Amino acid sequence: MTPEPLYPEERRSRGGSGRFWLLTIATVLTLAATVSLGRWQLSRAAQKESLQASIDAQKQKPPLTQAEFLALEKASDSLHRPVRLRGLWLPTQTVYLDNRQMHGVPGFYVMTPFALEGSEQAVMVQRGWVQRNFVDRTKLGDVETPAGIVEVTGLIEPPPSHLLELGTPTPAPASAPATAETPAPAPAAGAPAPAPAAEGSSPIRQNLDLEAFRAETKLPLRTDVSLQQGGPASEGLQRDWPAPALGLERHYGYAFQWFGLSALVVILYVWFQFISPFRRSRRRARDGRF
Questions:
Q1: Which helix (H) or strand (E) holds 102?
Q2: Which residues 6+ apart lie within 8 Å of 259 measured at CB?
Q3: Residue 260 forms part of a structural domain
Q4: How many structural domains is the chain composed of?
């Protein structure tokens, strides 16, 4: 038998029903994906907030003594905690990390090894920041380095972060001073003697790898952590260290975008599946078309 032909309204009804369910399934899948991504970004933000709270709590703890610091099997477990150390600066091994900014001004992070009194260990200290000379890049600012045994207070921090390095850095002239008019002090009893700087090496560097620096200088340097010296500006150095960038704003921004996309999908679904067909049916009814 020849199938009975469908009237236009019946064909439109069957086709519209199939499209309705197809768009409904696509909308549900899109909503599931966008809402899940938004919730994931919020969970990442919550993790970062918990990490920030942990860092703040570490900073509020009483400073470790030198004996406690030396007894740490993994100093990285005490990151961001204050510590008070006594020892001897090794100014001939001072390194200036280039392209570091403070308050938007380019300059150098000044890094000097610190030989711990009564031990065979040294730790790299992030002493502070000094502004670059904009006329002569290789001319280093005046940095005072106290001679003899001194006490240094700072935070236990990871080794200095690395910046993108393109090409081979140009060595600074051999006459560039490691510190400004500060003679190298004689080693204290029990402290490692400072090794001479490697021939042709420059105090200005883009990055500093502590493992490579230890091999270069032959110093008994700890390579798992460094010390970030705090306090007001002194010795020609500023110490307004930037807070670690945890990216909380980025996670909240991404979450807002995903939830905004979810809201847009719902609005479009309601418009094209309900409001627009209702308006068309009202218009056909007003025009006398059934």
A1: strand 95-102
A2: 34, 35, 38
A3: no
A4: 1
